[in-house]
Amino acid sequence: MGNLTDEAGVFHRVLFQEPMPTEIVKRYVEAHGHVFSTSELAARRQEAETIEIVLKRQLDVEAVEMVLRRKSPRHLLTQKLHIVLYLVESYAEYVPHFCNLERRLVRSYLVLGFLALQTIFKFLKGMFLIWKYRLV
Amino acid sequence: MIVIGSGPAGIFAALRLQGHKVLVLDVGNQPGSPSTLASPLYQFGGTVGSPHFDEFIGPQFESLHNINNEYLLPKLKSPLMRFVTKDSTKLTPSTSETFSPVMSLAQGGLASAWGAEVYRFTDEELSLFPFRAQDLERYYDCVEQHIGISGANDDLSELLGVDEQLYPPLRMGRLASDLYRRYQGKRASFNEKGVRVGLPRVAILSDGHHGRPSYQYDDLEFFKPPGPAVYSPALTLDHLVRDELVAYRPGYYVERYEELPNGVRVRARKLADDSREEFEARRVVLALGTMNTAKLVLASNDDYETRLPLLDNAISYVPFVNPRMIGEAPEPHHLRSIQLTLAYSGDLADQCIMGSFYAIPGILRSDLFFRFPFSLRMNRAAVKYVLPALLLLQLFYPDQPVPDSWISLEENGRLNIRYQRKCLGRVERHVLSVFRGIGYCGLPAFCDYPLPGNSFHYAGCLPMSLDRDAPYRTTPEGLLNGTRNVYVADAAVFPSIPSKPLTFTIMANAMRIADQVKRSLE
Predict the structure, then answer these.
(1) pLDDT tens digits, residue range B36-66?
(2) How far is B102 from chain A (nearest CA, A)?
(3) CB-CB neighbors (< 8 A) of A111 in chain B
(4) Cβ-based neighbours of A105, under 8 Å, separated by 6 or more
């Protein structure tokens, strides 16, 4: 339980740069139980260990996840982040994160351009971290 | 008379057979209590928190299904739409590595969640059928009068036929309107390249029809059962039962039938208490949906060897982005997802390829989040800024029987399915290049080719044929060869399928077969 609440907080901070509200943390723990059975998690021990290393060493989750996703689109790390995304999306407070409420043509191009460059940097960083820590 | 199944085939057969002591047997799962959900996702009206968590995500986190399970269409996985596929994996289990079947035991069948596009088959598309388009025309007309169709006579009329009974078309969104306007400006060039675009013909009312209201746009088609403006066979069933024109017994899973000297005996499992009940009638009409019908026929013959042919419309998804619309605010009006229809006829395909342009205003962004291959933050920005500029084209491919696509029944009751996947991509690349000319961009790398079975357009297991001795074939009248009283009314009897949605023809053909059943009793 402790691990799940901790990882939920980290994932939320990576996605939205702020702490996860307690109500959503509870829902994350509950949803996690619905999505993954105990036996499945045991069978995916290697992926779980990767997440443990990433969290313990405070590695760049975004960089590692992107590279792991290219190798395995259903990596446990990606799936856990996906749970967070689904849960928060139904909350009114998160609408501005998913929906462009006002017309912002120039801003959108600037943001996308900057993040495209950052994606390249993150990918290279992710490759390095995966090589260095032998993550799978 | 017994009709098994309440999907489009069963209900239109029952409609035609009304007055002949018709009993409809069905599992008949229904939606739960009516939802109070009225405003779409992203319109919280000043509220905080998640007032509709149970409807959007679900008390059992139903919307998270695709994270760690086989892919289900967003519309089928949302909590209030789960009734459509409920119990199907339990009662009709299957094994396949090459096919992803979706079956429904709901009242109305898969048409409880259909796109409602309705197109008539042409003579060319019926070339393997033992009758001509003319033989179906009066049934098409009859179905159209019953369900009501909105659309327009436009560039596609040459392929779809002119229809004077259409209600006005449904509202188009900003993006589709822009694409259509640009297409019309360069129509000649598009047509030269084999591409035509027009408005979809849908069984959704833009005006009142037989007491049903016009469509209320609410962006909730992915989250709750459609209202009466969207035609569903369940609406007709309600009417038939209310007026006591047919008897309806839901909660029964039919396991086998057996021919009697003057009729048929049907054995069904009553799901409430797992008991068995038998029903007898002079004729039985099988309309359980292609694969369930095939399963029932094989089970009734204790046949665990035969491989029946299987047809499916292969599909692909082609995303188009209009760069001028990136960063746009949300649409001022709510929409329906299907916006435009495309047809391609040319050297790249033997037959016409049809497709639908979808807008995606009312879908959970999380369903699309990891479709983008970038970093988390870039994906979030793409979902936020690029989606308003995105139209998704879904292409359908025709199918004919091949030896490597088949379905069989195992002794443990599981269906074994094998399907030979088609090599797609040429039409997608062509269409991408044609639309680039009017400012709609896309890359072949972003096209998606789902596993066969995701079209839900299954057919051909018991095809109609003029050979009245061949086993597991049906006569042009729908009578199963080797039987005297067993008729098949669903798409299992189609010898081939074009790239068009099948449901309209399933309805019309079921009425035609029902007439043959009536005639056999005279």
Answers:
(1) 777 777 776 667 788 889 999 999 999 999 9
(2) 21
(3) 381, 385
(4) B326, B327, B328
* pTM for the structure as a whole: 0.95
pLDDT at A1 over 80: no
Q: To 10 degrees, the CA torsion angle through B31, B73, B501, B158? A: 120
Query: Contacts of residue A99 in chain B, CB cutoff 8 Å?
Result: 42, 330, 365, 384
Q: Establish if A127 touches chain B: CB-CB under 8 angstroms.
A: no
Residues of chain A contacting B380 with CB distance shorter than 8 Å? 15, 97-98
Q: How far separated are the first and last CA of chain A, in Å rounded?
A: 24
Our CA dihedral for B308, B313, B314, B319, rounded to 10 degrees, sits at -160
> Tokens 């509220």 map to which residue?
B47
Q: Does A59 touch chain B (CB under 8 A)?
A: no
**SS3 label, residue B234:** helix
Secondary structure, 3-state, chain A: CHHHHHHHHHHHHHHHCCCCCHHHHHHHHHHHHHHCCHHHHHHCHHHHHHHHHHHHCCCCHHHHHHHHHHHCCCCHHHHHHHHHHHHHHCCHHHHHHHCCCCCCHHHHHHHHHHHHHHHHHHHHHHHHHHHHHCCC
Residue of A nearest to B371 (CA): A73
A34, A62, A106: residue with CB nearest B64: A34
Structure tokens at B420: 């030979």
CB pairs under 8 A between A and B: 138
Whether A87 contacts chain B with CB within 8 A:
yes
Q: Do A81 and B376 touch (CB under 8 A)?
A: yes
Chain B interface includes A69 (CB < 8 A): yes
Residues B450-460: pLDDT tens digits? 999 999 999 99
The CATH fold of domain B2-521: FAD/NAD(P)-binding domain (3.50.50)
What are the structural domain ranges in chain B?
A: 2-521
As a whole number of angstroms, the distance between CA B381 and CA B70 comes to 27
Residues B182, B320 contacting (CB under 8 angstroms):
no
Task: Chain B: give the shortest CA distance to residue A122, in Å.
Answer: 7
- Under an 8 A CB cutoff, do B366 and A118 touch? no
